[in-house]
Each structure stands twice: as C-alpha cells, then as structure tokens.
Amino acid sequence: FAGPGSGRYAAVIPEVEALGDMIRALYPGKYFEFDVALPTDTAVAVERQDLSEMLGIVLDNAGKWAKRHVICRVRIDNGLRIEVEDDGPGVASSEWSKLGQRGVRLDESPPGHGLGLAILKQLVGDYAGELTFDTAAVGGLRVCIALPD
Question: At 104, phi and psi to the nearest 5?
Fold first, then answer.
C-alpha cells in the first residue's frame, strides 16, 4: 500500500478489535458481527490513526442507522478491503453520489454535522483507494473501502 505519512504499518486485527469493543459500548442494543479473514499478524501500509478513523466512521454510521444488526467484513483482496453493512433504512441509489460530500446530510434527524463520510472519502483518496456504496444484503447501506496494494 502507498499512502501519506511516514509509511508506518497498522496491525489490522488489533484495530478492528479495539473499535469493535468501543462501538459495542456506544450501541449496546445492536449486534455487531465481525468477519475478519486475515492472519493474526496482518499489517497494512496505512497509518494506524487513519485506519482507526476509517473503521470508526463506517462503524459509527452503521450503528446509528442499524435497526439491530451491523456486519463488518475485513479481507486482503488486491489490497485491504473493508465492507460494513447494516439493516437500517438504507439510501436510495440515486442518492449515493451525495454521500461523502462535505456538509451534505441526507437525513437531519440523527445528530451529526455531515462530516464523517467526507472525512472518510478524503482518507480513502489519500491512499488512492476507492469508496463505494451499495444496498446491503440485510437491507440497509453497504459501504466498501478498497485500498490498493
């Protein structure tokens, strides 16, 4: 992976586990499922705080919108691939292009400032990655972060 900063590596599993514990505490009525198919020592050339920020943004958004269930999948597939989906109301495909625009909020009801996905989009772009949105198998929104080798 090529990215900004000093070229430090982040250990993936400890970051996922730490954020999993934190997000479960923030949303105790919701079930967070983590499917991490990586060797325990997997490290990627992403600054630790950037990886933590990316994961935190998608997990927090999914936690806000989920009715009860969030699934997070982490893989190495031509780079790091993170998919987070929830069983919430989802977002119409016609609105996906608006997600990640600074200050744009498609729903004003939950607290927030419309910055999370904009920050995520910038971070993913800093690593020449791709951020995509889709309909989740469980009905809500699926967010995919793909960072190249």
Answer: -90, 125
pLDDT digits (tens, 9 = 90+) for 70-127: 999 999 988 999 999 999 988 776 765 666 555 544 455 454 445 678 889 999 999 9
Radius of gyration of the chain (CA): 15
Q: Measure the CA angle with vertex 82, ends 79 and 84; round to 5°.
A: 165
Distances (CA, A) of 64 to 6, 8, 58, 60: 33, 31, 10, 6
Residue 69 host element (H or E): strand 69-76
Residue for token pair 């936690």: 63
By C-alpha distance, which of 119, 116, 61 is closest to 90? Answer: 61
Instruction: Decide: 147 and 132 in contact? Cβ < 8 Å.
Output: no
Residues with Cβ within 8 Å of residue 51, at least 6 apart in sequence? 10, 12, 15, 44
Q: What is the distance, to the nearest Å, from the Cα of residue 66 to the centroid of all Cα atoms in its chain? A: 14
Name the β-bridge partners of 142: 85, 134
3-state SS assignment for residue 16: helix
Spacing of C-alpha 7 from chain mean position: 21
